[in-house]
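Minutes, project check-in
Item: structure for the 260-residue chain
Input as provided by the requester:
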Amino acid sequence: MPITNDTAARIAEWLRSARSAVVFTGAGMSTESGIPDFRSPGGVWAKYRPVYFQDFLASDAARCEYWRQKCEAHAQFGTAQPNVGHKLLAEWESAGQLRAVITQNIDGLHQAAGSQRVLELHGTALAIECLSCARRCEPEPMMAAFRETGSAPQCEACGGWLKSATVSFGQALPEDVLAEAWELARQSDLFLVLGSSLVVEPAASLPRVARQHGARLVIINRDPTEQDATADAVMRAPLGEALAAIDQFARPMSQSPQRA
């Protein structure tokens, strides 16, 4: 589905007139930064079986496999930089056109691009957290310790198990973040889904909640989603190109900055 000026202009008009525009991003938001998504061919789950939270708690072998996978992913996160899509969302928020970003991503690229109000439904890979005392620390020393010893690291303060401050399969989403996301969806009058397959619950219900409360729904994703039929506009295109096309109509060309 190619980018058309009519669709981009229509979404831009909705963005300009919205009182409470909210963006929901998935893994596709960061693929243009070199971070592979999860479910497509060649994605993360095509290579590995995810380590479930209950297995992490119960088995030393599972904890070691978890840390092996995290060490590999950390190398990708460590070199990734915000792409044009991340930067545009930060600019829209700064201009008062965007209320918040709700993200399934754990890479911190929205914040690195300058977005201020970011709700991380699945936590962040930029911190390590103790499951017992909730103490946090930087990832790299823990990654280095695992690479050297091959043993899952434990908290220096209490001896509890350490894991990435992300939500694993079988682990509950943070209740406060999820509650705020629901409220933003209910209050939105424009809800933009960017780079999400909309298959992971409960996050996949956020667009439905927004739609049920009267918001316009826009879905921009490489592949079709089950909610395309209920959307007011759908674009299947690279996110950077799609958002840049919308941005051209969202403000005068003379105000559109040049981006690397």
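Outcome recorded: Confidence is low (pLDDT under 50) at residues 253-260.
No further action items on this chain.
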